[in-house]
Amino acid sequence: VAGDTSSHKMVGTNHRRSRTKFTEDQLKILINTFNQKPYPGYATKRKLALEINTEESRIQIWFQNRRARFGLQKRSGPETLESSQTHGQGQPVTEFQSREARRCRTIYSTSQLHTLIEAFMKNPYPGIDYREQLAKEIGVPESRVQIWFQNRRSRFHLQRKRELVSSEPEDQGKISEGLQGAEDTQNGTNFPSDSHSSRART
DNA sequence: CCTCTAACCTATTCATTAA
DNA sequence: TTAATGAATAGGTTAGAGG
Questions:
Q1: pLDDT digits over A112-148, tens only?
Q2: Domains in chain A: boundaries
Q3: Quick check: A67 CB within 7 A of strand C?
Q4: Å between A16 CA and B8 C1'?
Q5: DSSP string of A99-112?
Q6: Which residues fall inside 7 Å of strand B, measured at CB?
Q7: Is the shortest CB-to-strand distance from A69 to strand C under 7 Å?
Q8: Rounded to 5 degrees, what are φ and ψ at A82?
Q9: Which of A5, A42, A134, A164 is the one with CA 20 to 30 A from A51?
Q10: Pick the CATH number of A110-165 from 1.10.275.10, 1.25.40.280, 3.90.550.10, 1.10.10.60
Q11: How deeply is A8 buried, as exposed, middle or buried, from its count of CB atoms within 10 A (0-12, 13-18, 19+)?
Q12: Does nucleic acid strand C have an atom less than 7 angstroms from the CB of A42?
């Protein structure tokens, strides 16, 4: 409540969205919820978003990160978490409700898809600014645009991998490593393949 | 410097919808 | 029933705010 999560807009070169700073109160609520349900459904996340005045997508990311960090590591926690059968008091739920409903599937129209695909061919890794612009343009939340790009990239990679396999008989592989060969390539068929592959280790 | 963690990524799986 | 694809997951990387 009363937290302004957005405000300034760092002009200039934005690629990522600016880092969200949660207040203690917000964190308290998030952590508390996490301890009870590390896998909240869409309804829960939306309610949380309203409660702490933060975008739902930030909450989704927060849960993802938290699970990765603490995961259901259970045991030896500072406190709480016993992952016991949980049903101390009358809360008969949790019997068969393992999974809460997820967000409804978004159905993109042909024209929306056309816009997305076109953008994808120009740049498969759009920054926050461009994603937001795109989102406004086709009338869907920015978070959906981001997911769309993720899925698209993954499937593109998968398809490419298959092509390699089919074009290359079994025992002979080894050329596959030539992924770094594609550099400039503004063609839609190739990925920059950099963006986060630059690894500098010693 | 170093730590912590939001933002982001890929790869895979789950789930819905159109054919 | 199946192919296509949106949503969720695990788990890893990048980068910004502080100590």
A1: 999 999 999 999 999 999 999 999 999 999 999 999 9
A2: 24-71, 110-165
A3: yes
A4: 8
A5: S---PPPP---HHH
A6: A 15-20, 22, 58, 61-62, 64-66, 69, 99, 102, 104-105, 107, 125, 127-128, 146, 149-151, 153-155, 157-158, 191, 195-196
A7: no
A8: -130, -10
A9: A134
A10: 1.10.10.60
A11: exposed
A12: yes
CA A152 – CA A154 distance, rounded (Å): 5
Amino acid symbol at A120:
F
CA of A191 to C1' of B18 (A): 30
Where does the pLDDT of residue A84 fall: very low under 50, low under 70, confident under 90, or very high at 90 and above? very low
Tokens 């981001």 correspond to what residue? A146
Q: Give the C-alpha separation, A180 to A172, whole Å.
A: 19
> Taking CA A157 as the corner, what is the angle to CA A156 and CA A163, rounded to the nearest 5 degrees?
90
Q: What fold is seen in the domain A24-71?
A: Arc Repressor Mutant, subunit A (1.10.10)
